[in-house]
Amino acid sequence: MKFIKNDTAKYDQVLLFVQFVDLMEKVSTALDENRISHYALTKRLAKKAANMMRAFQETMDSRTKRKVLVLNVADESASGANLSNMNHIIFLSPLLTETQYHYDTSTTQAIWRARRYGQKEVVHIHRFLALKTIDIDITQERTAKRLVFEGGLCDLKPEEEVDPETPSFGSWMTRREKAQSDTK
Question: 114-152 burial, b if ≥16 CB within 10 A, otherwise e?
């Protein structure tokens, strides 16, 4: 919530993806508690989804414009949405899928909801992950990238660009560390 309140420009809009219904309710409550205006497209609001998305996109009055749209990345209510007014996409946790193909297609589809023809602003992609947890492991495994800390920021970099001596931020060994231990 701190990031949305303090680190995004006043008129920026945020597309926040969650994967689980119970998490969506908790995120909506946290946004309410932090007085961050938002729409959360839950299943119980499915009939209002089209109107909510339209209002989110078209409202220009700064007094009534919502800051955040919360979508379930795996839910059909999120598919097909053209949200070219977004400046930030946040994945609140790693996407859990059975296959790499499903991970890639779901993530790509989510990002392209905001990165569309007609997009006037830069779209920033953020992945919120807890250090030293399985979140890091899943993200590193699915993206084939390593989380590194450089210049005060965390970033995902291709494994071949990361010094082998760089410590892991995950809870398990990275593929490279595992491969090295398997050869010993």
Answer: beeeeeeeebeebbebeeeeebbbbbbbbbebbbbeeee
CB 54 within 8 A of CB 108: no
- Token code pair at residue 161: 């660009």
pLDDT in tens, 68-112: 888 888 766 555 566 777 888 899 888 888 888 888 888 888 888
CA distance from start to end of the chain: 45
Tokens of 13: 């809009």
Torsion sign over Cα 124, 125, 130, 132: negative
Closest by Cα among 2, 14, 4, 39 to 113: 14
- The contacts found for 166-174 with CB under 8 angstroms, 24 or more apart, are 168/136, 169/131, 169/132, 169/136, 170/132, 170/133, 170/134, 170/136, 170/137, 170/140, 171/132, 171/133, 171/134, 171/136, 171/137, 172/134, 172/137, 174/140, 174/146
Task: Confirm whether pTM is higher than 0.85.
Answer: no
117 vs 114: CA distance, rounded Å = 9
Q: Which residues contact 3 (CB under 8 A, 6 or more apart)?
A: 90, 126, 128
Enter the tokens of residue 46: 């499915």
What are the structure tokens assigned to 67, written together? 């800051």
